[in-house]
Every structure is written in C-alpha cells, then in structure tokens.
Amino acid sequence: MTAIAEGFTLSETALAELQGGFRGEIVGRDHISYDERRKIWNGSIDRRPAVIARCAGVADVMAAVKFGRKHGLPVAVRSGGHSFPGHSVADDAFMIDLSPMKGVRVDPDARTARVQAGVLLGELDRETQPFGLAAPSGIVTHTGLAGLTLGGGIGWIMRKHGLAIDQLRRVDLITADGEFVKASADENEDLFWGLRGGGGNFGVVTEFEFNLVPVGPTVLAGPIFWAMEDSPEVLRFYRDWVADAPDELMTIVIHRKAPALPFVPEELHGKPVVMVVCCWTGDHEEGEQVIRPMREFGKSVADVCMPKPYLEHQAMLDPSFVPGRWYYFKSCDVQGLTDEIIDITVDHSLRIESPLTSFPIWQMGGAVARVDEDETAFGGRNAAFTYNIGAATATAEGFEQEREWVRNFWSALEPWHTTVYVNFLDAEGEERIRAAYGEEKYNCLKALKRKYDPDNFFRLNQNIPPT
Ligand code: FAD
C-alpha cells in the first residue's frame, strides 16, 4: 500500500490499473517530470499532489474521474494552471490535468470553433485569426481557456461581443460519476446555465464549442501614458470620456512603475505612470476620432495606441504576468469612478513598491450588460468597473509588503464594493463566493450542485457546496 494523502492509501495494483488503459501519462512523485508538471502560474504556490493524471482524451478523463471516485481521493482539475489561489493543485490530491488536450477545429463558414480543455487563449487566437475571426476571451495569451470560460471570461472584445460564455454554444463534460454528458441551450439546459459562470463545480469539461465573431486582423490599440502624479485629473477625464463610449472601444487603466519593454520610452523605465490601454475593434478612422480626446488630454508622456495585429495586442501584457513570479490579488466591482474612489486609487498607486506590480481597472458594460442577469450563472453584468488589485514580486522577497498593500487598498474601497468576478477571487471563503453571484443565484447554483455533484466531489475550486 502507498499512502498518497492523509487518510488515503492506494495499492500498487490500483495505480497499475489506472495506468493500464491510460493513453496519457501518469506522473507520480518519483517521476522525472513531477516537479515540472505540478508547477502552476503563481510561483507563490508550491504544492505536491500525490499523483498527476495527464489526460490525452475524453476516455482518460472518464477513467481518471472514476478512479478518483472509487478511491475517495481529493481531486484537483487543471487546464491552464492560472487560478490565482492555485485551485488546480493541492497537496496530496489527485490532479486531473487536461493541459495535453490541445485540439482546435475552426469552421470558418459556420463561424464556430471546437476547442479542447487544454487550449490556452493564444493558441485559440492563432487558429481563428487567419480567418479574421476570434472568440471573446481574456488579455494574457498563456491563460487557460477552460477555467477562464467557466468563470465568465472578460477581455478586450467583450464590450462589443460579450463574455466568453456569451458566445459559448455547447460543452462536453464528465460528471462526478465519470459519465459523459453534453450541455447546450437544447440539452441539459440547467447544467449549461450553471457552467456559464459557475466554474468547475459541476464536472470536468473536455471540450467547448464557441461562436466566432469577426475581429481584426488589425485593431487600433495600445497604451497612452501619463505621469502617475497626473492620475487624479487623467482618471476624472477618463471616466467622462468612457461614459458614452461605443461598444467598439474597450479600455483598461493600469497604474504601475513603467516596465523596461521595447514600446516604453527608455526615460520612463521605472517611473510611476498611469496608462489608459485602448482596444478599438471597429473602423480605424472612426476609432481615431473616438480616442483623440483622451490622447490629447493633459501632458501624455508616451502614446503607442496605433493600428496593430489583434494577435500582437492580445500578447501585449504577457511580459507583465510572467509565470513563476509571486502573485497576490483581491478584486471588487464598483458602480462608477467617483471622486473618492479616484483619490483612493491614486493614493495607493503612488505607494506601489515592486517594479512588477501592475493592476488593471477594467471598463465593463456594453454587450456584457445587455445580456439578462438571469440568463447565465455569471454575476456582475451591471458592474461599471472591475478592480483587479494585484501585486507581483520576482520571489518571496518583498511579497508580504506588497500583499499588505493589496489588502489595504481593497479595504479602502470596501464602502463601494458591489459584486466581484469569481475568477478574480483568491481563496476568500463562502461569503465572497456568494457576493460573486448574489444570494438568489447562489442558491440556484447550490441546488444545481445537489443535482450534478451531491457529494461535492469537485470541491477544490471556488466551491458552491450542494444545498
Ligand atoms: P486552472 O488553474 O487550470 O483552473 C482553475 C479552476 O478552473 C480549476 O481549479 C477548476 O475548478 C476549473 N477548471 C479548469 N479547467 C476545468 C475543466 N476543464 N473543467 C472543469 N473545471 C475546470 N480572467 C478573465 O476573465 N480575463 C482575463 O483577461 C484574465 N487574465 C488573466 C491573466 C492571468 C495572467 C491570470 C493568471 C489569470 C487571468 N484571468 C483572467 C483569470 C482566469 O480566468 C482564471 O485564473 C482561470 O481560472 C484560469 O483558468 P485556467 O484553466 O488557466 O486555470
């Protein structure tokens, strides 16, 4: 017998049984690639699962779920490994790893894509952009499409085309019993509702099918920079400028010390700046007119908002979120950038120590807000802005201090908190998960959990325990 988790033992025979028919790879603690395979994006998380089942296909996922079930093992599900609190890896758990499942099939005529669960955002864009198409997703290419979609999926084209889930047509899923089911608007509709925002609570998704929308291949996009000390005026102008912005415009405001990247003028490197990062997906001339007032406001110190390939824009923030650094986030939605919120934002931004800390304020609204709140499990469609207050350091050094900065900043905004995006939560407990969905929706999700996973087999996630 091998002790693989506290209170759990497995016979060599049981592991051999799993290994037997498995097409992918079983990685135990003595496997040569164990340390590589257990790593996730957030370098501050260092956990040692008992066994990693790297699934090659649907049959492997079914076998893995049944195996975990039969042996009563705590199960962690991993696709892109980008969960902020590291839900996809746990000490002594059985990790079901879908990252080898990389299939993408684009149908340019039907404008659809079938995408397996291990695909990353950049990999999907790579396949859709040759046809001038895209699925709404997120803003960093190495994020996993699976976890992102199951939480909602916010990104550069959402104000025009909605969240990732708003273009989701169907999923294939393995239930807690290891059974294969489909969910769509016509089949298992309740499950389909819950999967669009309810995260990994209801099963393991093996494949997604999306509608694709026309985007690019060129967009008018990039950051405009001001000195951070000008941020009180920049943000006040910005909030009025975006108030009636067309859906084609999506913006993210970033406060940070300017990074030493090729598109940032050398004299700014390391200096505190505020950037308004734009992405205009419509006609470029019209976009120039819409963006001009912001460009011309005050004394910008750099402006690299220009026509460029959508793929390039999608990858622009990758260097700011390099895997392996130490990260910590706390998030909240607000209903508007009031004077108080702006002053708090600037006050805390000026206190950023780490040169790697870079936190986005997302402009919401547009197509996201036009879908009825009850249509999907996702909560917070009416949020005006989403704060994702995040800190980063290269190693443990300085991390505590930066984390304290996040907590203080987030607490200072507390009187204005409304909802919170579930995919931006840390491990913050049930109250915060409830806040993500609102009371009524949370109770519906609990009832759905009772139907599809009454034993809470899938609990290493932003967990919604069954009623
Ligand atoms: P994983 O850690 O692999 O999975 C996270 C959780 O999702 C798992 O614990 C599990 O509960 C569930 N899950 C994953 N795969 C499956 C599956 N196949 N079936 C069932 N459940 C599953 N979010 C946005 O909306 N927009 C962004 O632009 C954005 N940018 C980000 C950038 C970075 C650098 C990072 C780290 C995160 C970003 N996020 C963004 C948040 C992101 O949506 C979540 O972290 C999401 O969980 C990542 O999915 P993943 O598959 O990479 O994560």
Briefly characterize the structure.
The protein has 467 residues and is an alpha+beta fold. The chain has helices at 12-21, 34-38, 58-70, 121-128, 145-151, 158-161, 189-195, 231-243, 284-295, 310-315, 339-349, 367-370, 399-412, 430-437, 439-452; strands at 2-5, 8-10, 25-28, 51-54, 75-78, 94-97, 104-107, 112-116, 133-134, 168-174, 180-184, 204-211, 213-214, 218-227, 249-257, 272-280, 302-303, 306-309, 326-334, 358-363, 385-393.
Description:
It is a single chain. With 467 residues, the protein is of the alpha+beta class. The protein has 15 helices and 21 strands. The strands form five sheets. Strands 14, 15, 16, 17, 18, 19, 20 and 21 form an eight-stranded antiparallel beta sheet that branches. A five-stranded antiparallel beta sheet has the order 7-8-12-10-11. Strands 3-4-6-5 form a four-stranded mixed beta sheet. Strand 1 (2-5) and strand 2 form a beta hairpin. Helix 8 crosses helix 11 (339-349). It is globular. The model has no long low-confidence stretch (mean pLDDT 96). Bound molecules: flavin-adenine dinucleotide. Flavin-adenine dinucleotide (FAD) binds at residues 41, 77-84, 87-88, 98, 117, 138-140, 143-144, 146-148, 150-151, 153-155, 199-200, 204-205, 321, 423, 461.
Q: Using only CA atoms, what is the Rg?
A: 22 Å
Tell me the major beta sheet. Answer: 8 strands, antiparallel
Number of helices in the DSSP assignment: 15
Please report the total strand number as a whole number: 21
Average pLDDT metric: 96
Distance between the termini: 36 Å
Report the bound ligands by name, code or SMILES. flavin-adenine dinucleotide
Helical amount among residues, as a percent range? 25-40%
